[in-house]
From TrEMBL:
GO molecular function: FAD binding; UDP-N-acetylmuramate dehydrogenase activity
Biological process terms in GO annotation: cell division; cell wall organization; peptidoglycan biosynthetic process; regulation of cell shape
Cofactor annotation: FAD
Gene: murB
GO terms under cellular component: cytosol
Primary localisation category: cytoplasm
Annotated organism of origin: Virgibacillus profundi
Name of the featured protein: UDP-N-acetylenolpyruvoylglucosamine reductase
Class of enzymatic activity (EC top level): oxidoreductase
Length: 307
């Protein structure tokens, strides 16, 4: 059982009180607008504060979860116990010639726009990805033929022991929508990208084209976690779902998007349980009809709500 007062006092010795919230609703921090409460939600401002919080969690033997910016994530209705860390205040992006260093809380979209402003090519694919830089590394985010592993050279992380490490891109085992970051419990603090000089007009034209494709095809008018499923070998997840006559299928307030079958949207104040039940229904239906296993791209964390 957590001693809330004890933990609160410990946390505000590490970071200012404004950065420590108790029983904070996590639906305010996820793109799906789903999720119960965190015992403690902390938003550190420095790498040292991140390290100190990891060390505190270890010492107190309290659960510790990294939230990211909640774009490719479903938090269950029962919320998350222990300390939940959000790195939304680590947002600095710097460029030096063809090298960009972006902190993990910065949006990957903003990194792509900063690259454009400096006439640097390589991050155009990220102009429509809603996640953070840290999240982009976590899952080797990609779109329209580009992915993080194409431009990442190194990263700074904090490990489970609270140690600060500098790792090469190769040490992250980046593959299609995966890395070893979750398995090893790394907290990404910053990423270094190697970009190339190109014409501003060419970079902007590509980003404008990709933005148009995204906005015209994706259901951005509703909260969602983005693309729910990974692309199965030899197929497209959205096409399989569409051919299973599942577009418009609804469980509670969660719906398979009518605009893009690969998306599930929070159409009408859905619960996380309804959203997850619909994911399972889609997986079962596609498996029965086509014999294809749809693997989730979205991550599900937290506890079920006990009624």
């Amino acid at each position: 059982m957590i001693n809330y007062h004890h933990m609160y006092e410990k946390l505000i010795k590490i970071t200012p009180e404004k950065n420590v919230m108790v029983n904070e609703p996590l639906k305010n921090y996820t793109y799906t607008r789903l999720g119960g409460k965190a015992d403690f939600l902390v938003t550190p401002e420095t790498y040292e504060q991140v390290q100190a919080m990891v060390e505190l969690a270890n010492k107190e033997k309290i659960a510790f979860t990294l939230l990211g910016n909640g774009s490719n994530l479903i938090v269950k209705d029962g919320g998350i116990r222990g300390i939940v860390m959000n790195l939304q205040k680590l947002t600095e992006i710097k460029t030096n010639e063809t090298t960009m260093v972006a902190q993990s809380g910065a949006k990957i979209i903003d990194a792509s726009r900063e690259a454009l402003s400096k006439s640097l090519s390589g991050l155009e694919f990220a102009c429509g990805i809603p996640g953070s830089v840290g999240g982009a590394l976590f899952m080797n985010a990609g779109a329209y033929g580009g992915e993080v592993k194409d431009v990442l050279t190194s990263t700074k992380v904090v490990n489970r022991a609270g140690e600060l490490l500098t790792l090469t891109a190769e040490e992250l085992d980046l593959d299609y929508r995966t890395s070893n970051i979750p398995d090893r419990g790394y907290i990404v603090l910053e990423a270094t990208f190697s970009l190339t000089v190109a014409k501003y007009e060419d970079i902007k034209a590509m980003m404008d084209d990709l933005t148009y494709k995204r906005e015209s095809k994706q259901p951005l008018e509703y909260p969602s976690c983005g693309s729910v499923f990974k692309r199965p070998p030899g197929y497209f997840a959205g096409k399989l779902i569409q051919d299973s006559d599942l577009q418009g299928k609804q469980i509670g307030g969660a719906q398979v998007s009518l605009k893009h079958a690969g998306f599930i949207v929070n159409k009408d104040r859905a619960s996380a349980k309804e959203y997850i039940d619909l994911i399972h229904f889609v997986q079962d239906t596609v498996k029965d009809k086509f014999g294809v296993n749809l693997e989730r791209e979205v991550k599900i964390i937290g506890e079920d709500l006990i009624i």
